[in-house]
Amino acid sequence: MEIIDSPYNQYVKRFRVLQTVKGRREQGVFLAEGGRLIGEALDAGWPILAAAVCTDLLGPGAKAIAERLRSGDWPCYEMSPRAFSALSAEKTPSGVAIAAICATREMAELRPGPSHLVVAAWELRDPGNLGTLVRTAEFLGALALVAVGDCVDFFDPKTVRATAGAIFRLPLAKVSPEGFWRWTESEKVSVLAGVSDGGVTPESLDLCGPVTFLVGSEAHGLPLEAEQRAQGLVTIPRRGKVESLNAAIAAGICLYEITRQLDKQHT
Amino acid sequence: MEIIDSPYNQYVKRFRVLQTVKGRREQGVFLAEGGRLIGEALDAGWPILAAAVCTDLLGPGAKAIAERLRSGDWPCYEMSPRAFSALSAEKTPSGVAIAAICATREMAELRPGPSHLVVAAWELRDPGNLGTLVRTAEFLGALALVAVGDCVDFFDPKTVRATAGAIFRLPLAKVSPEGFWRWTESEKVSVLAGVSDGGVTPESLDLCGPVTFLVGSEAHGLPLEAEQRAQGLVTIPRRGKVESLNAAIAAGICLYEITRQLDKQHT
After folding, report:
1. Cα-flanking dihedrals φ and ψ of residue A175, to 5°?
2. What pTM was computed for the model?
3. CB-based contact (8 Å) between A116 and chain B?
């Protein structure tokens, strides 16, 4: 078995370019690293194009994952620590990496029923926040998460890491603002928007599902048009002096309350 | 007016060492950067030891802050972009920095009344999570945040940034586990612990203040002893398959519900 050692090897390069938006777009695959994350991808049956393993870097948890990668239906490249470190986006490379297909859904596939919640990330800019939102939405049982407009990439390594594996379980879609509004109308989805002022508290919502909850960008919130077209505005009341909550925290509080109410309504 | 240009200048070095735990401990000061964050420190009257300004790097928002720094009761060092970049922990330095005193409270100063909540971060390891927790606690009107045991430093640049200025407003304290339990007894504070399994939902709590809410570490949660000594355990019910919520998100949901109930009880 040949072990790749050169950081300039063509396979090392093909993994490494997946750290960039351009590389991911051109190849249609993304990089996922670490035993835990890859374990989630394997368990979910996520489509994998290729794998890379470095035996010398493997921690106890990643050994079993390396074996699963070696016995899969994809090429598995064995690498030296030097070559593996060159493809890795991690400070402490784990010794296991996959090139996974950037699989998303079409909006038309999302057909929410009356107890369903779809989370909409509207031009979020921070990869960590988007990943945390995917993790929260999956944990709370949302049907899907859609990225509206010019949102940060689902498949950025920082986003993928922050999802803690939820990215391999929650249906994801990308859509333009116009496409989003068309979908809400054709699917008869109530739109709720999280805003920093002027909305009602999450617990005083009177929900009638299906519901989609809009999360605005960290710096600018939601565009005025989105607030105006929403059927309801939701605000977490502020008691202190700091200007705002972190976007992912505010969304987490609202999503918890919304899923709780939708659940209560249908049991 | 002399402009410091050398990255090896003694004042540049004194700011730069504040990026390390050791430097902060030895000097008792920490680094805060950026117009918005420093504006919060100035508005809150936070004690400042020294300031650094680089006119060539100032954006529109930071110009007024630079003026306030120049007219303060502390030395204000003028620096070239080269010197300023050498002290900064930011990828895109803002041109304003302060060395601020690491001011915390003694536990004995924290005297919670019946409607008060104190947040306890138990051995949190992620600076961003601790900072987000400080921001959330301040926003929701908590009385204070205490770091129990071997918790990440309040004054790490990543923590400070994630607080969005709340660090200059919310009383902070450090305490050993033993000191924490003594304090809860002497102040008759009910202890609630966030756990991933086996607790009640946050909305079904029956609260009698004052309350302290324990947030465990990202990887290990709370030690068994803390769960056993708590008067109540709180769990966010999971509907999806991802193993857990992000620690700061789970805490945000619980803290929102707790402050809401404490508020309702006292109005």
Report:
1. -155, 150
2. 0.91
3. no
Residues of chain A with CATH 3.30.1330.30: 10-101
Region(s) of chain B under CATH 3.40.1280.10: 107-265
Q: Which CATH architecture has domain B3-101?
A: 2-Layer Sandwich (3.30)
- For B111-167, the pLDDT digits (tens) are 999 999 999 999 999 999 999 999 999 999 999 999 999 999 999 999 999 999 999
Searching chain A, which residue's CA lies closest to the CA of residue B132?
A246
Residues of chain B with CATH 3.30.1330.30: 3-101
Query: Residues A20, A25, A27, A33: what is their CA dihedral angle, to the nearest 10 degrees?
Result: 40
Distance CA A238, CA B40 (A): 17
B107-265 in CATH: which number? Answer: 3.40.1280.10
Let me know: does B53 contact B66? Beta carbons within 8 Å: yes
**Rounded distance between C-alpha atoms, residue A224 and residue A75, angstroms:** 49
B33-84 per-position pLDDT tens digit: 999 999 999 999 999 999 999 999 998 889 999 999 999 999 999 999 999 9
Q: B89: part of which helix (H) or strand (E)?
A: none
Asked if A115 is an interface residue toward chain B (Cβ–Cβ < 8 A), one would say no
Q: What pLDDT does residue A180 have?
A: 98
Query: How far is residue A160's CA from residue A169's CA, in Å, rounded to a whole number?
Result: 12
> pLDDT for B88-108, tens place per residue?
998 899 999 999 999 999 999
Instruction: Answer whether B249 sits within 8 Å of A141, measured CB to CB.
Output: no
Q: Tell me how close the Cα of B242 comes to any Cα of chain A, in angstroms.
A: 5
To which H or E segment does residue B237 belong? none
Which CATH code is given to the segment(s) A10-101?
Answer: 3.30.1330.30
